[in-house]
Design brief:
alpha/beta; binds adenosine-5'-diphosphate; binds magnesium ion
Amino acid sequence: MLERRDFTDSRLAALASKRPLRMLPNAVVLKLGGQSIIDRGAAAVLPLLDVIVAARPGLELIICTGGGTRARHAYQLGLELGLPSGVLARLGASVAKQNARMIQMLLAGSGAVHVTAEQLDQLPAFLGAGQLPILAGMPPYGYWTTPPAVGRIPEFRTDAGTFLLAEVLGARRAILVKDEDGPYTADPKKDPAARPLGHVSTAELRRLDLPDLIVERCLLDLLEGARLVREVTIVNGLEPQQLAAALAGQDAGVRIYG
Ligand code: ADP
Ligand code: MG
């Protein structure tokens, strides 16, 4: 059993190609956008929290938070001061954590608990007890963040962290709540001629080679390489009934699939 093996061993390769276990197959992992939702304050956040509270009975929901404008400000200062990517990632994570704390306090009456990366193995216990785990969406790479090919801003931010959490758990769905109806041909806030693309594959998004996307660009790679979760649903949180429909299992929002 414990004879010498190397990583190119064909028996290991055969085992590694098996589909991994879905640890929490019923879980829905949802991100509340930082800039797109939380930074808009009460007017955008509170109606979504009402939807979440109403949808929660019987649903294994895990909420991640984005960073947003305060994280971008920290990145700008950090860049100006010459700080490396690993430090910027720590700064960004602490802003997402601020947002997680606010959402957790707001939902405290509905059993929300703030869960850190070290407590991740307690997720089943929290869900089993009917609680509502809230996590900062930033993946906990921190100082070990791989510096990006271009520039110094960490590529794996809170869209990536939310998606990777759904993937490792083998969750039923990953939902990103933002402030647009999915991907457009250009950023609709800057280009009035931008057209919505509807459900779209990562291959089509690559072919279009858009200057900006509604999701972190690394999400295209993650969706294509994922073993268990091969799509994300973008929900427009400015229309809270979209989130209500998505949480009810209806075909709401716009899917990006790998
Ligand atoms: P979050 O707050 O979840 O991190 P972001 O603000 O980073 O979300 O990204 C969402 C924003 O991306 C939207 O508000 C939209 O203005 C912008 N965006 C950029 N390019 C596109 C595009 N091609 N289609 C749609 N939205 C886009
Ligand atoms: Mg973002």
